[in-house]
Amino acid sequence: MGSSSDSLKTWVSDQLMSMLGYSQPTLVQYVIALAKQATSTGDLVNKLSVECGSLSSSSDTLHAFTEEIFTRVPLLLDDADDDDEKRRVKRRTITGDEEGDDDGSESEEERLVRDQREEQLEQNIRNRDVIGARKLMEPVNALEQDDITALRRVSRQEYLKKREEKKVEELRDDIEDEEYLFDGVKLTEAEYGELRHKKELYEIVKKKKQSVEVDDTREYKIPEAYDQEGSVNQEKRFDVALKRCRDQECVGGKMNPFAEQEAWEDYQIGKAMLKYGSKNKRQISDDDYQFVFEDQIDFIKTSVVDGYNTDNEEVSKLLEKSKAKSALERLQEERKSLPIYSYRDELLQAIQDYQVVVIVGETGSGKTTQIPQYLHEAGYTKRGKIGCTQPRRVAAMSVAARVSHEMGVKLGHEVGYSIRFEDCTSEKTVLKYMTDGMLLREFLAEPDLESYSVLMVDEAHERTLSTDILFGLVKDVARSRPDLKLLISSATLDAEKFSDFFDSAPIFSFPGRRYPIEINYTKAPEADYLDAAIFTVLHIHVKEEPGDIFVFLTGQEEIETVEENLKHRTKGLGTKIAELIICPIYANLPIELQSKIFEPTPEGARKVVLATNIAETSLTIDGIKYVIDPGFCKMKSYNPRTGMESLLVAPISKASANQRKGRAGRTGPGKCFRLYTVCSYNDLEDNTTPEIKRTNLANVVLILKSLGIHDLLKFDFMDSPTPEALMEALELLFSLNALNERGELTMLGRRMAEFPLDPMLSKAIVASDKYKCSDEMISIAAMLSVGNSIFYRPKDKQVHADNARMNFHSGNVGDHIALLNVYNSWKETGYSTQWCYENYVQVRSMKRARDIRDQLEGLLERVGIELTSNANDLESIKKAITSGFFPHSARLQTNGSYRTVKPPQAAHIHPSSGLAQVLPRWVLYHELVLTTKAYMRQVTELKREWLVDIAPHWYQLKDAEDSGTKKKSRGEMKRL
DNA sequence: GAGCACTGC
């Protein structure tokens, strides 16, 4: 059976070879996979030509190919099923041997793992379906991929050499009757044998031709094949080369080994035209060469989004007038120039008439800064504060600063802001900007928001977890407090949804200030979006007018590769092209380096910003004219069934595609290059799934419960989380004793809710009171909640970094204690930055940990926990951790992997853990993440008795039995 | 022996 699958693969490979000139196992697999999915031959043809843009072989050939493959595929399907079955049987016998027997639970565990894998696979396939053959096409042929975007001098030579080698290979295959054909010329075996190098090849061929010829139709001809997309006619190219070769001989009397290349260059130089902007026009001398690309990415210009500038003349007049005035007056004039100003009275009227108003206005319209001021001027602050929530700390701070400036008051007096670790308000404050999470916390103290007269939820379209919860709460409050005005402000897309949610609230929309943006899609899907992005950057750099470029990538790794690649390709070019300044930016990048992107671009140079999603919302950069959007981002998803998180590269939504596009039109007309097709765009989801649907809800549930909301299933969510996720969270809280069996909040739960932490961490802190180690516990909690960015591991010093990290693990104390060691060592050095560098620890993360620790210390008092230190009793500390994390325990299996206790599933210790080599029998883990395997991160050894002692309701003795005894009893059962 | 988008309390 296996042979039929192999033969199909070989056959497909051959076919691809003849159609494309190359083939690769992954590509073969991919094509077969497509054939499996296809419903008919026509469908398959479509799929193939859509998915593999490069398969633009003549349609007849393609059709014949698909017909054939379609009849052959069923063979493979049988085969595959069979294999699967075999594997399953095999696996079953293996586990049976090892584990004794317990088929029920074993196969369930397997099913869970398999489900997960399948889900991920499906996800991967879906990703591909939207954008094309990204992953599988990637390794198709390193050379080809490289060609697509390589600048001529960098890889043209290599490319041609390879092409030629291929041609020679083909020649070799064509041997017939001891005759060797090349370009219609017969060669002897000896001559053929000498075809080691192009030079020789040309030499021989040329001589032969000269003696035989004369076929003068072979004039020097520009190979028009270059102009057609996708296909390059090798024959024509060789013709050109030969002709060129001959010319060289005649003119110079000397053989030029790169004659073919020269011909090609000449042709391209004649064809291409390097355009510079008018500002830095340069004289192009003869020996200058142009940048040309083997395969152009065809972009289709589909639409131009019009910009709208409200009352341009009026605005400029106002600005003109304001020049001569004082700073404060000028600010007032500027305020009047904002688009929102002309709608001021209507807006105030609408707010007067309705309790809830949905406001739609694009960024830059001034809604965040102006509306609260208008309301203040209209006297709303006499009854109470005006609150305005922002999803981000920086936004809250900077907007507050701006408004206080405009109003001519000191920040923190009439205008203030409130964010975690920093409350910049006073009794005088009437305009309060804050993060949405902060308002959520305020709800705990003031459930009816009595001190507020107006509440504005800004950037509602972002749908952060906190805003989503706020919606439900605020809607409820508004019903009981008719005097409370509610403003929901959002970008265009969701407006109606918001309006529906708030009982058909009126939508008040006004234009922002925006310039037209031209949107370009690719004609065919790009196999590798990274290469396509690099190509597009270079293309823009060479061909388009001055203006900075912005590239959206998914993560640090991608940014680094693209940066390297761009540097490499522009390096050897010196002054031949304008300078390209590459600015990477992602959240983990040290702040000093981040600020680089805000430096103005020097005259004559061009800046290219490589950014993650951080730029989609969090920061704006001026002067961006071109946006390159590959259409992907990393997204976290959560599986409540297994409690596993995973971070996957996923296609973005239409909403974020448009958000990204908008980055181009801030300061002038711009262009957006989407590295996917119009069809792909139409297939995208309208909106990104709100966070509430893809996250662990334990914390949310705890907050809602402590606000007195009991029936969570009936809570008015704008998008309800799955009941499964809610139940999972409730169960967890119940097992932590934060809820009683009726689902009511316990005293313990109320104390836990005070901490801005995951419930399990909060529980560990509350429990540390009993073990007299609260001092240590809050340090650990702070370190854990800064995340995984504590250790710094540069690529070139991985060994050193790993050694430094292992120093904290001496005695195999486990990762939690290691984190404590890190914190304490840092504290002992007086919070030294130098110490951090020496130990490969990130200063920024440590400072954050210190802030969090300080906050937690303050909260200890509030919930009545004494700050006690018990540094030498590691067991107590571990027991305190266990009190919070007992649901996250795992037992070592005989095969060296672990198995979590509830729900049972396979897991491994993450290699970055200090215990990765130690493999204790029982472990506790902080989180379970699915990447290539299910990994437990931050692991500490555990004694199984603790589980039974600390959480008797959760673990019965039989759960916590050692694998040895378990095996025995299982064996006995089997015998019975 | 592995890779971590972005927020927020």
Automatic annotation (TrEMBL):
EC number, UniProt record: 3.6.4.13
Bias-annotated ranges (Acidic residues): 96-109
Record domain Helicase C-terminal: where: 534-708
Catalysis performed (reactions): ATP + H2O = ADP + phosphate + H(+)
InterPro entries: DEAD-box_helicase_OB_fold, DEAD/DEAH_box_helicase_dom, DNA/RNA_helicase_DEAH_CS, HA2_WH, Helicase-assoc_dom, Helicase_ATP-bd, Helicase_C-like, P-loop_NTPase
Keyword Nucleotide-binding among record annotations: yes
Keywords from the UniProt entry: ATP-binding, Coiled coil, Helicase, Hydrolase, mRNA processing, mRNA splicing, Nucleotide-binding, Spliceosome
Gene Ontology molecular function, alphabetical: ATP binding; hydrolase activity; RNA binding; RNA helicase activity
Compositional bias of kind Basic and acidic residues: 110-119
CDD domains, per the entry: SF2_C_RHA
Region annotation Disordered: where it falls in the sequence: 84-119
Coiled-coil region list: 154-181
Similarity comment text for this entry: Belongs to the DEAD box helicase family. DEAH subfamily. PRP2 sub-subfamily.
Protein name: RNA helicase
Organism: Quercus lobata (Valley oak)
